[in-house]
Design brief:
Alpha-Beta Plaits; 2 domains; seven-stranded mixed sheet; two-stranded antiparallel ribbon; 33% strand; alpha+beta; 11 strands; Dihydrodipicolinate Reductase, domain 2; 4 helices
Length: 214
């Protein structure tokens, strides 16, 4: 795998408002690293914040705890959790590696010897498909919501749920609009965001978070 092809997105655009809205919709925001092999054998790999359903095992992981969720064809989902930081866990991992080296215990990093590894076909991020959470500031005037939904419709993005919160905006200037989309392709969503950016009724760039498992 060419790690330079991994899509990476940070958490710098997420605010306390997004955490609150996510909770209202039944989600928690988690920074996830995801790798999926599709039916054709190509690999989809990405790192970005995601909305995870409250009922999902990954949603309960917090603090210094890390988790790995593996989905197998016969066993289903298997979740492994454990400390991912701190003096004790870090020292334990380092000492374990030193002991393995002293004993001559060695395993290939990817289980198989390098000679048996083959280049993997990578799925472009534009081909990713899922549901999305969007939060934007719409102008506080009649018709602004219609312009927002029109832009999404023009890009062929279907809205599952939309919430308008006048009490959390700035009276006479803008109000927050939060929506959840139905499943759509990444390329389609990016086209919708480009259309939204052209509208004067959208005061600032929308915050976009993908929904895990959609």
């Amino acid at each position: 795998v060419d790690f330079s092809s991994v899509y990476v997105e940070g958490i710098e655009t997420i605010t306390a408002a997004d955490i609150k809205f996510a909770a209202e919709f039944g989600y928690r925001i988690k920074l996830l690293g995801t790798a999926v092999r599709n039916e054709q054998g190509a690999i989809e790999q990405r790192v970005h914040p995601a909305l995870v359903a409250h009922s999902a095992p990954l949603a309960s992981v917090s603090g210094v705890t890390n988790a790995v969720s593996v989905h197998g064809g016969y066993v289903g989902n298997v979740v492994l959790t454990g400390p991912g930081a701190g003096e004790g866990p870090t020292a334990s991992a380092v000492v374990a590696d030193i002991v393995d080296i002293a004993r001559g215990i060695a395993f290939p990093p990817f289980i198989l010897p390098q000679s048996q590894l083959k280049p993997a076909e990578i799925v472009e991020m534009s081909d990713y498909s899922g549901a999305y959470y969007l939060r934007l500031k719409a102008a506080d005037r009649a018709g602004s919501m219609a312009e927002v939904t029109k832009a999404l419709a023009e890009a062929d993005v279907s809205i599952e749920r939309i919430v308008q919160r006048p009490d959390q905006g700035r009276d006479g200037e803008w109000l927050p609009v939060v929506l959840i989309t139905h499943e759509t392709r990444e390329a389609t969503m990016q086209r919708a965001l480009a259309l939204l950016s052209e509208h004067a009724d959208v005061v600032s760039a929308p915050v976009v978070i993908r929904i895990q498992g959609s």
